[in-house]
Specification:
580 residues, Aminopeptidase, Alpha-Beta Plaits, 16 strands, globular, binds (2S)-amino(hydroxy)ethanoic acid, binds manganese (II) ion
Length: 580
C-alpha cells in the first residue's frame, strides 16, 4: 500500500512517477488521503489535467526524448525491449521523426513503450504511433501525450508496489487469442472480421466453449442460434441467476475488444470463484452472444433476440451477400434452424436477478476525463434501414447534366441532409456506412445506388425526428430528380434506460475501487438494449485508448483498466451476495 505520511513522501512518489514537479507534489499532498493505487493514479491525472499549459508541457520536457540512445525513458524491462530488436533503419527513422515531432509541438514524443499488456511494444508499433500522432492538432496531441505520461506513471507505480493486473491481462490475452479466428482476406492481413456462422465464427464458439470449461463452469453449451452459454451453479439448485455477457461476432476489420471484453471479464471472475471452490447464493450465467452487429444478414442482435423470445422467423429466410439463407447457414453450422428450438431459448425472467454487461466505451468520454470506468445510465435509441435509389444508367460523355437521372447524386444529397439534420439535434447521429453503385462503371451515369442508414439519439422522439427528415428528404430529392426510391427498415430499438438498482450496484462497485463512478449514456447499441425488454439491465463501460476508437483495428484498452473492470464485477457480485 502507499505509505504517504509526509510532504517528502509525496514529493518522492511524484518524482518517481512524473519526474521533478514540485507543483504537482504540492497539490497531490493536498489531495491526501488517496484510498487506493487507482485513486492515486486518477487524482494525479486530474491534477495534471487542471494544471496550466506550461506546467503540463514541463512534465513532457522533463520526460525527455525516448529515442536518444542514452535516454533514461525506457521503462525498466518491457519498456526497453524495442531498442534491442529495432533495426538501424528503424532507429534512424525514429530519431528523424522524433526530432520533427519536437520541432512541430515543442515537447518530446512521449510513448508508453510497454503497451496495453506492459509486455513491450515493437519498434514498428512505436514508429506507427509516432507517425499517427504527428498528424494530430497540437491541443489533441498534448492531451494524448499527457495520457501516455499517465500510463507510464501507472506502470511505474505498479512496479513500485509490485502490482500485476493479472485478471486484466487474462482478459486481454483471451481477446488477442480469440482474434486469431478471422475471415479471409482480413485473416491474411492479421485483421479481424467474424460474421455470423462463418467458419471463423464457429471456431470462436468452439474456443469460448473450451475456455469456459477450463474456467470451471458447471455447464457449457452452444445453443440453437450459436450463443455460447456457461453456467456456474449457485450454492443451491433453485437459486436465481445473474445473467451477463456480450457478443463475439464483429464488424468488418474490427477491434479485438468490442463485445468480447463482456464475455471475458465475467469468465475471469467465475474462474476465480471456481479456483476458491466458492458458491454464491445465485448462479452466474455468462452468454457469448452469437450475433449483435448485423453484418452478414440484414438483422442484428440475433443472439439476444433469441433469449428474450423476439427472434423473427422471417430472419431465417434472409439472404447474405452470396445468396445463402440464414437457415442454410445455420444447418451448415450444425444448428437446427428450427423456430421451436429457437423459441425454447427464451429465458424465464422470474429466474434471473437481472442482466449486466461489461463493454468498452467505444467513445472518447472516459479517456478525456482520465477515468478508467463509467456506469451507463441509458443506451441511445437507434434505427437502421437499407435503401436503393433507381434512376437511369446513361453515357457519362453524352448525357447532358440537366438530362441525367443520376441515382448516386441523389443519395449524395440525402447523405448530406442526414448529416445536417443529425448535427442540428443534440446527441443525435446519422451515418451512411454502406454506399454502392452496383455494377457501376467509370463512364456510366449511375442508374442505381444502394446505401444504408443508421440514425441514433438519446430519446426515441429525437431519433424519429431525424429519421422523418431524412425519409422525407429522400422522397423529395427523388421526386425532383425523377428517380424512384425504396427504403427497408432493418432495426428499430427504443432507448434503454438502465435499471436504477443495478446501476447503483455498479456505482457502489466502482466507487469502492476509489474511482469516481461517472454516469453516462451509450451512443453504441449493445445486447443490453435487447435484454432490457425482458430483464432489468445496466452496463459498465471500460475506457478505450486513442480517443476510444472502435469498430477499427486500433481499438484498445489496458490490462490495468480491464483489471479494474474485473474488480468492479467482483464487487458487484459481492453487492448482490449481501442483498440476496
Ligand atoms: O452499432 C452498434 O452500436 C453496435 O456496435 N452494434
Ligand atoms: Mn460493435
Ligand atoms: Mn459491441
Amino acid at each position: 500500500m502507499l505509505q504517504l505520511f509526509t510532504r517528502a513522501d509525496v514529493a518522492a512518489l511524484v518524482g518517481e512517477l512524473y519526474g521533478c514537479a514540485p507543483w504537482l507534489a504540492e497539490r497531490a499532498w493536498q489531495a491526501l488521503p488517496l484510498s487506493s493505487p487507482a485513486a492515486c493514479k486518477l487524482r494525479l491525472a486530474q491534477i495534471v489535467r487542471e494544471a496550466t499549459h506550461e506546467q503540463q508541457v514541463s512534465l513532457l520536457l522533463a520526460h525527455g526524448d525516448f529515442s536518444a540512445s542514452d535516454s533514461g525513458t525506457d521503462e525498466a524491462g518491457p519498456g526497453g525491449a524495442w531498442r534491442m530488436q529495432a533495426s538501424e533503419g528503424e532507429l534512424r527513422r525514429m530519431r528523424e521523426l522524433a526530432a520533427e515531432y519536437a520541432r512541430q509541438f515543442g515537447w518530446p514524443f512521449v510513448p508508453d513503450l510497454a503497451g496495453p499488456l506492459a509486455r513491450g511494444l515493437g519498434a514498428a508499433q512505436i514508429l506507427g504511433a509516432l507517425q499517427r500522432r504527428l498528424e494530430n492538432p497540437p491541443e489533441m496531441e498534448l492531451a494524448e501525450s499527457l495520457r501516455q505520461l499517465h500510463r507510464i506513471a501507472e506502470l511505474r507505480l505498479n512496479g513500485k508496489l509490485g502490482l500485476r493486473p493479472l485478471l486484466g491481462e487474462q482478459v486481454l490475452d483471451w481477446c488477442e487469442r480469440l482474434a486469431r479466428h478471422s475471415e479471409p482476406p482480413w485473416r491474411e492481413q492479421g485483421r479481424l472480421t467474424v460474421t455470423y456462422l462463418s467458419e471463423a465464427h464457429r471456431a470462436c464458439a468452439g474456443q469460448l466453449r473450451e475456455w469456459m470449461n477450463e474456467c470451471g463452469f458447471d455447464e457449457v453449451h452452444v445453443d440453437a442460434v450459436g450463443n455460447v452459454v456457461g453456467l456456474y451453479h449457485a450454492d443451491r439448485r433453485d437459486a436465481p441467476r445473474l445473467l451477463t455477457g456480450s457478443h463475439y461476432d464483429t464488424v468488418r476489420d474490427a477491434g479485438r475488444l468490442d463485445g468480447r471484453v463482456g464475455i471475458f471479464v465475467p469468465m475471469a471472475c467465475v474462474r476465480e470463484l471456481a479456483r476458491e471452490g466458492r458458491r454464491l447464493p445465485f448462479g452466474i450465467e455468462v452468454v457469448g452472444f452469437a450475433e449483435e452487429e448485423g453484418q452478414r444478414f440484414a438483422a442484428a442482435f440475433l443472439g439476444s433476440s433469441a433469449l428474450i423470445g423476439a427472434f423473427d422467423p422471417a430472419w431465417l429466410d434472409l439472404r447474405d451477400a452470396q445468396g445463402m439463407r440464414m437457415r442454410e447457414a445455420m444447418l451448415e453450422a450444425g444448428l437446427p434452424a428450427d423456430m421451436q428450438a429457437i423459441h425454447a431459448l427464451r429465458r424465464d425472467p422470474a429466474r434471473y436477478l437481472g442482466f449486466v454487461e461489461v463493454h468498452i466505451e467505444q467513445g472518447p468520454v472516459l479517456e478525456a476525463l482520465d477515468l478508467p470506468l463509467g456506469v451507463v445510465h441509458s443506451i441511445n435509441a437507434s434505427w437502421r434501414a437499407l435503401g436503393e435509389v433507381v434512376g437511369v444508367a446513361s453515357h457519362a460523355g453524352t448525357t447532358p447534366m440537366q438530362a441525367r437521372r443520376d441515382a448516386a447524386c441523389a443519395v449524395a444529397e440525402v447523405m448530406l441532409l442526414a448529416e445536417r439534420s443529425a448535427a442540428a439535434e443534440p446527441g443525435a447521429v446519422a451515418t451512411v456506412g454502406q454506399l454502392e453503385v452496383p455494377g457501376g462503371s467509370v463512364n456510366v451515369v449511375p442508374g442505381r445506388c444502394r446505401f444504408s442508414l443508421d440514425v441514433r439519439a438519446p430519446a426515441d422522439a429525437l431519433r424519429d425526428r431525424v429519421r422523418a427528415v431524412v425519409e422525407k428528404g429522400l422522397h423529395e430529392v427523388c421526386r425532383r430528380r425523377g428517380l424512384r426510391a425504396q427504403l427497408r427498415e432493418t432495426l428499430r430499438e427504443p432507448a434503454a434506460p438502465s435499471d436504477a438498482g443495478l446501476q447503483e450496484r455498479w456505482e457502489r462497485a466502482v466507487a469502492g475501487l476509489g474511482v469516481e463512478a461517472h454516469g453516462m449514456s451509450s451512443g453504441a447499441g449493445h445486447d443490453s438494449m435487447k435484454m432490457h425488454r425482458l430483464l432489468p439491465q445496466a452496463m459498465l463501460f471500460v475506457r478505450g485508448s486513442l480517443g476510444g476508437i472502435s469498430h477499427n483495428a486500433l481499438e484498445s484498452s489496458t490490462a490495468d483498466d480491464l483489471q479494474l473492470a474485473c474488480l468492479a464485477f467482483q464487487r458487484m457480485i459481492e453487492d448482490f451476495c449481501v442483498s440476496c
